[in-house]
Design goal:
The protein is of the alpha+beta class and 143 residues long. The chain has three helices and four strands. This is Flagellar basal-body rod protein FlgC.
Length: 143
């Protein structure tokens, strides 16, 4: 494996985690949103990760070398879970029985996901720093 492959793989993971963090941020920002342009309350969004695809020739070459692959975000899925029904007759979006359809977002799950995304991002920064140190040490050979 080329030393620069580590940079590429780690940077693809950092990009994917950044998109994940942006999605979590959007979920947290809309945790109380009861009206959307699509109608109804905001629905939770989640990112889908997949190993990055490579053309057949590169894939064959990588499999012969035993090379690793990066990651990419293939989709941001909208949750199909029903909204939480909260009794609040004074809310402007309350129905005849006084229930309001609230977003199906769990604050604790979002905070745990945010921590996980942050730790994964930091781990990939550490990978890049380590690869950089290795490259610099290799330049010192013979001096």
């Amino acid at each position: 494996m080329d030393l620069f492959d580590s940079f590429k793989i780690a940077s693809s993971a950092m990009k994917a985690q950044r998109i994940r963090l942006n999605t979590i941020s959007s979920n947290l920002a809309n945790i109380e949103t009861t009206r959307t342009p699509e109608g109804g309350p905001y629905r939770k969004r989640a990112v889908v990760f997949q190993s990055s695809e490579t053309p057949f020739g590169q894939q064959l070459e990588q499999s012969l070398k035993g090379a690793e692959q990066g990651v990419e975000v293939t989709a941001i899925q909208v949750s199909q879970e029903p909204p939480k029904m909260v009794h609040n007759p004074s809310h402007p979006d309350a129905d005849e029985q006084g229930f309001v359809a609230m977003p199906n977002i769990n604050l604790l799950e979002e905070m745990a996901d945010m921590t996980s995304a942050t730790r994964a991002y930091e781990a990939n920064v550490t990978v890049i720093k380590s690869a950089k140190r290795m490259a610099l040490k290799a330049l010192e050979i013979g001096s």
